């Protein structure tokens, strides 16, 4: 479990929600934007509630371990997945693959911009 501090208040949520929230906050801030999101939290009484936050530029979010948590961890995986599906959530970078040379196909070297072959 993690404590998320925002605007002087601290709420408790699961590790995956806190991690997704921090990544989304950084991504939105990098775009120079701010947006409202909701996350599930656990109150000091142990009830499940929802917190609404404005994240992005000018809205700092701190996630720290909830060392004093003793109860069972709720399943907020659905909320973490919703944050990860946000259009501004950082996506994994594309992996570059080396282009293979196809010596058996003479058309493989055809370059339409040059109106011909790129190799002699």
UniProtKB/TrEMBL annotation:
Residues 97-120 are annotated as: Disordered. This is Uncharacterized protein. It comes from Microbacterium testaceum (Aureobacterium testaceum).
């Amino acid at each position: 479990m993690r404590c998320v501090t925002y605007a002087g208040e601290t709420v408790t949520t699961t590790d995956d929600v806190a991690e997704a929230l921090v990544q989304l906050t950084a991504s939105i801030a990098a775009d120079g934007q701010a947006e409202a999101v909701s996350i599930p939290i656990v109150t000091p009484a142990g009830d499940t509630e929802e917190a609404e936050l404005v994240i992005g530029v000018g809205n700092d979010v701190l996630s720290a371990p909830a060392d004093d948590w003793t109860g069972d961890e709720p399943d907020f995986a659905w909320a973490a997945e919703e944050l990860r599906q946000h259009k501004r959530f950082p996506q994994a970078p594309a992996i570059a693959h080396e282009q293979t040379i196809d010596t058996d196909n003479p058309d493989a070297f055809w370059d339409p911009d040059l109106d011909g072959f790129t190799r002699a």
